[in-house]
Automatic annotation (TrEMBL):
<feature type="binding site">
    <location>
        <position position="287"/>
    </location>
    <ligand>
        <name>substrate</name>
    </ligand>
</feature>
<feature type="binding site">
    <location>
        <position position="172"/>
    </location>
    <ligand>
        <name>substrate</name>
    </ligand>
</feature>
<keyword id="KW-0378">Hydrolase</keyword>
<feature type="binding site">
    <location>
        <position position="199"/>
    </location>
    <ligand>
        <name>Zn(2+)</name>
    </ligand>
</feature>
<feature type="binding site">
    <location>
        <position position="50"/>
    </location>
    <ligand>
        <name>Zn(2+)</name>
    </ligand>
</feature>
<feature type="binding site">
    <location>
        <position position="79"/>
    </location>
    <ligand>
        <name>substrate</name>
    </ligand>
</feature>
<dbReference type="InterPro" id="IPR011059">
    <property type="entry name" value="Metal-dep_hydrolase_composite"/>
</dbReference>
<comment type="similarity">
    <text>Belongs to the metallo-dependent hydrolases superfamily. MTA/SAH deaminase family.</text>
</comment>
<dbReference type="InterPro" id="IPR050287">
    <property type="entry name" value="MTA/SAH_deaminase"/>
</dbReference>
<feature type="binding site">
    <location>
        <position position="287"/>
    </location>
    <ligand>
        <name>Zn(2+)</name>
    </ligand>
</feature>
<keyword id="KW-0479">Metal-binding</keyword>
<feature type="domain" description="Amidohydrolase-related">
    <location>
        <begin position="42"/>
        <end position="391"/>
    </location>
</feature>
<dbReference type="InterPro" id="IPR032466">
    <property type="entry name" value="Metal_Hydrolase"/>
</dbReference>
<comment type="function">
    <text>Catalyzes the deamination of 5-methylthioadenosine and S-adenosyl-L-homocysteine into 5-methylthioinosine and S-inosyl-L-homocysteine, respectively. Is also able to deaminate adenosine.</text>
</comment>
<dbReference type="GO" id="GO:0046872">
    <property type="term" value="F:metal ion binding"/>
</dbReference>
<feature type="binding site">
    <location>
        <position position="202"/>
    </location>
    <ligand>
        <name>substrate</name>
    </ligand>
</feature>
<dbReference type="InterPro" id="IPR006680">
    <property type="entry name" value="Amidohydro-rel"/>
</dbReference>
Amino acid sequence: MDEGQPVKYGYMVINEGKIEGIYEEEVKEEAGEVIDAKGKLIIPGFVNTHGHTGSTLLRGAGDDLPLNTWLKEVMWPMEQRFTKETTKAATSLAIGEMLKSGTTTFLDMYHLHMDQTAELILESGMNGVLCRGMIGLCSKEEQAEKLKESVELYKTWHNSGDGKIKVMLAPHAPYTCPPDFMEMIIEKAHEHGIALHTHLSETRKEVEEHIGTYGKHPAEHLSELGFFEGHALIAHGVHLSDVELSLLARKGTYISHNPKSNLKLGSGVADVKKMKEKNIRVCLGTDSSASNNTLDMFEEMRFASLIHKGVNEDPTAVSARDILFMAAQNGGKALQYEKKGRLKKGYDADFSIVEPGGMHTLPDPEERIVSHLVYAHKGSDVTDVFANGKQLVKNKELLTMDEEKIRFNAREALAKLRR
Ligand SMILES: CSC[C@H]1O[C@@H](n2cnc3c(O)ncnc32)[C@H](O)[C@@H]1O
Ligand SMILES: [Zn+2]
């Protein structure tokens, strides 16, 4: 399903992980396996462009706090106690949840055990972008060590697993990475041609403090340091000035819009209507389940579609098709996958089958299907999921992961943390 393209009925042929073709007539050629999705919807796999899978066990911890307090008093003290086992339990749970709700590609910004995350992604069959999140509130030696680790991660994993895994460099945010450290990271990114990802202008407080300290807005400051000269993706962008938005438009920077997290932390609402008017490349992310609290891209799509209509008092602010485009096709581009996020010949066979029969999606004439996908469907309507042509979810069951084990390990790992 592409932007502006109608819903189609037909037959999709998959070969060697790619979409070989989509036909209106039945294909008579012999097939290895035929999947009957009659009466169901086939949609592109979602691309979740911002999250922290390692934080998944903190779902429901530290509710009702603003970002600054939430990070300093809940997240960071808890995360300091995370072991490799904790992170494995958390990331496995996140991958399972994402897969079962139709996400086939995600970006993970985290600072612990990213090699293990890479292994888990490959085992699951999903696609993932690894970002070793760097917080620079430490000694110069530690900063250098974090950057070295990030570059190592790139050298080891970028484009591995037949291109399933990618790596970006990720300074956590301008308020945790002083300009000289930020500059070092940007230089390394340019030296190796690595894309950059960071949290940017998420809260009013951080922007005001940045202006107070440096006399300039954070995005303008990052631009001076060269952040937007290569491929760049920022998360949030809730408090960007008009000048900054125009700058990001000019630079072709991607913005991961994370509406549920922004609402839950009381950070505000990004001006997606204006971003659209300025032709900024917007994609969608959940952030972590500690600030969301689910990783269901259907929910993210619904919030993204509704809040901008409400805040702008304009029901045309963002359409259902705009949102689907952000959740799949633009996400694929933001994460530098050339052929993801579309059901089109030559694209990777990343798709989900969605059950249309629930009472919450009836009646369902053809012209309302896109509307239903954004305004009515939920992740639990996904029955089957494929990535790179391989089936990963069948009849709502994970094929490459042991769900019982994931559930047990998540509870156990949290219990251990609390002991
Ligand atoms: C060092 S990268 C991982 C780091 O990021 C924290 N985090 C999670 N969500 C957010 C957010 O919305 N803004 C800023 N930082 C966030 C997470 O807890 C990890 O410490
Ligand atoms: Zn985040």
